[in-house]
Design a protein that fits this description.
By secondary structure, the chain is mostly helical. It contains eight helices and two strands, in the order ααββαααααα. The protein has a two-stranded antiparallel ribbon with strand order 1-2. α4 runs antiparallel to α5. The protein starts with 7 loop residues before the first helix and ends with a helix. The site of retinal has 19 residues, from α3, α4, α5, α6 and α7. Retinal binds next to α3, α4, α5, α6 and α7.
């Protein structure tokens, strides 16, 4: 545990943003009675709740640790990975349920995802040599690319059997997910965990904006249209 530096401003904004998103999703799903639609709300509310807790942990210094690599001290926000470990599978679940994916597809996506975050954490905490940290990054990024390839292929196959408005929504969410998720390894690589081109202050800002878009933005696009969710849950 170490006190956060000037980047804590972004972590507090993240805490606030995730909390507001969570409250908004709770309020807008409050009167819902359809259990299948409720599930999308439950998942999305947990995503923002977990992230709010993780941002609070980082803003107050609990989620921060210091490691030494090649004689240099690095501030590592490990709480990010704890957050991502749970929230990224939940995001995939939201999308997979919307597209009516089968169990094996869901397990494969979640498995690749957990592997990606765990190996990313390996890269963040490895103290041996910088080249080993970058190797972990490469392994994690390979898992991400497999995951995205598999996601696109599966959703493509499934979209034919979905009502038109549902398949449009699946497509929109899939594109949003691809663009946002690919940015994470880039920020990590140029940030303090990787090559150190981007200072911690800006890296924290970048991750915060990505996290808010990938969770609250994604949740908003998913949940705003009850008629589409209706159509998605009416197929039997
Ligand atoms: C890490 C480590 C380096 C390699 C890769 C990574 C990928 C992270 C991703 C995170 C997604 C997070 C989301 C959070 C939601 O708010 C772990 C940075 C590939 C894809 C969507």
């Amino acid at each position: 545990m170490a006190p956060p530096g000037a980047e804590s401003i972004w972590l507090w904004i993240g805490t606030l943003g995730m909390t507001l998103g969570m409250v908004y999703f709770i309020a807008s799903g409050w009167n819902l009675r359809d259990p299948e639609q409720e599930l999308f709300y439950v998942i999305t509310i947990f995503i923002t709740a977990i992230a709010a807790a993780s941002y609070f942990a980082m803003a107050t210094g609990f989620g921060l640790t210091e490691i030494e690599v090649a004689g240099e001290t690095l501030d590592i926000y490990w709480a990010r990975y704890a957050d991502w470990l749970f929230t990224t599978p939940l995001l995939l679940l939201d999308l997979a349920l919307l597209a009516r994916a089968d169990r094996n597809t869901i397990y494969t996506l979640v498995g690749l995802d957990v592997f990606m975050i765990a190996t990313g954490l390996g890269g963040a905490l490895a103290t041996a040599a910088v080249v080993f940290r970058l190797t972990w990054w490469g392994i994690s990024t390979a898992a991400l690319l497999f995951l995205l390839y598999f996601l696109v292929r599966s959703l493509d196959e499934l979209s034919g059997g979905l009502p038109a408005e549902v398949s449009t929504l699946v497509n929109r969410l899939q594109n949003l997910l691809i663009v946002l998720w690919i940015a994470y390894p880039v920020v990590w690589l140029v940030g303090t965990e990787g090559l150190g081109i981007l200072p911690l202050y800006w890296e924290t800002a970048a991750f915060m904006m990505l996290d808010l878009s990938a969770k609250v933005g994604f949740g908003f696009v998913l949940l705003r249209s009850h008629s589409v969710l209706d159509a998605a849950t009416d197929i039997s």
